[in-house]
Design a protein that fits this description.
With about 375 residues, the protein is an alpha+beta fold. Helix 3 runs antiparallel to helix 4 and helix 7 (about 310-315) packs antiparallel against helix 8. The strands form five sheets. It has a six-stranded antiparallel barrel with strand order 6-7-10-11-9-8. Strands 1-2 form a two-stranded parallel ribbon. Strands 13-14 form a two-stranded antiparallel sheet. Strand 6 and strand 7 form a beta hairpin. The longest helix is centred in the C-terminal third of the chain and has 25 residues, at about 320-345. It contains eight helices and 22 strands.
Length: about 375
């Protein structure tokens, strides 16, 4: 049976692209007013269902995946090719920054259904994401470069809170980057997304990011901020921080710049400043992934995001909002039906590609079952 597969353009720099070239969101003020009617300050938004007018034609799995597989250069190979632990750590800091992408105000990706997958390959990297929990929404990511023995494992779950003038989306979960050739593991967290409604609507990545490598005892502390003048004139997206030798507590480098343009590192020994990240090089001119060979469409999993949400995405891009809403309800109702069937049969859903653990405090961990992610029929150009 032929599959309908809808893949959309990844997020690039805001000045170059404000989203998918075929997508324009409906009237902003009407959407904002309808939100205020349906949520109250302090509301837990994890179970709040957005109407289709608020959705971009893309699943959250695709957004997470694009942070890893969409880039104008191979940032992960740069991490692996560093000659010293410090060189590699600086490259890891730059790679972590590269996973920040511009966000469109007023629209959100689909909340993935349980068991939904997103599987994409680049020339050097195979990436697999699975929605391993629906309530709360937890996403597992495994990306591998078998040739260079590079591995990335993420477990991400967003906890959104509404405070009256903004929604704060805190991104929880551990992220690891493993350079097996060097015996190094880098552990890091992510900043959170601040969506402000007043006085001027905006979306910004803010908060503190901590990166550490236990094997080299090197750590980094980064702070994402976005300042405004009297709340009306937004500055560039700034990032400041430092790289530290945790044993001696000596600051090795000072990090400064803007994650949507240039980030530099200053050597505290000699004062030398060098560019470690150029957003234009990494997140400009990104192309939509494709299924290169029409004969392998059958190999695309039925659980793939681009298949699950294809009818919804097509309707959104065509601005057929009633059709999009009905298609979205159909996907969500099918999920509820499967959930009821599992409860009736006393079955517990288990992911095929990951094992899970979570603590009483609410922490989640995801462990890949396979050592290396297999190639995908969906590929980046």
């Amino acid at each position: 049976m032929d599959k309908n597969i809808v893949l959309t353009k990844p997020f690039s720099l805001e000045k170059e692209s404000d989203g998918d070239s075929d997508y324009r969101a409906p009237n902003l003020m009407k959407r904002i007013l309808s939100l205020f009617k349906n949520v109250r300050p302090g509301s837990d938004l994890t179970r709040f269902q957005l109407p289709a007018e608020f959705n971009m034609p893309k699943s959250q799995l695709q957004c997470y995946g694009e942070e890893v597989y969409c880039g104008g250069c191979d940032m992960l190979s740069r991490c692996n090719n560093g000659e010293s632990p410090v060189d590699r750590f600086i490259s890891v800091v730059a790679w972590s920054i590269s996973t920040r992408r511009p966000v469109i105000f007023g629209v959100a990706p689909y909340n993935p259904i349980l068991g939904e997958t997103h599987h994409v390959s680049t020339p050097n990297l195979n990436v697999l994401l699975v929605q391993v929990s629906h309530h709360p929404p937890v996403t597992a990511l495994h990306a591998t470069n078998e040739k260079e023995k590079i591995e990335t494992i993420w477990c991400s779950y967003v906890v959104p809170k509404f405070n009256g003038a903004a929604v704060e989306g805190q991104v929880h979960g551990k992220r690891e980057l493993k350079l097996h050739n060097h015996g190094e593991t880098y552990e890091m967290n992510a900043p959170y997304l601040m969506i402000r409604f007043l006085p001027v609507p905006s979306c910004d990545w803010v908060g503190n990011v901590h990166i550490r490598c236990p094997e080299s005892a090197i750590e980094a502390e980064l702070c994402y901020t976005s300042h405004t003048l009297f709340g009306f004139r937004a500055s560039r997206k700034s990032i400041k921080g430092k790289i530290i030798d945790s044993i001696s507590t000596k600051i090795l480098y000072e990090i400064n710049g803007n994650w949507d343009s240039i980030v530099t590192a200053k050597d505290t020994n000699n004062g030398e400043v060098r560019v470690i990240y150029d957003a234009k090089e990494v997140i400009s001119g990104l192309q939509t992934p494709v299924v290169k060979d029409s004969e392998v469409i059958i190999c695309v999993w039925g659980s793939e995001s681009a298949v699950v949400w294809s009818e919804v995405s097509e309707a959104i891009m065509n601005k057929e909002w009633e059709k999009a809403t009905e298609a979205k309800k159909s996907v969500e109702e099918r999920q509820r039906e499967l959930s009821r069937e599992r409860i009736t049969k006393g079955e517990t859903w288990l992911p095929k590609h990951f094992t899970l653990s979570h603590s009483k405090e609410g922490g989640w961990n995801c462990f890949p079952i396979q050592n290396w992610v297999p190639p995908s029929p969906i590929q980046t150009l």
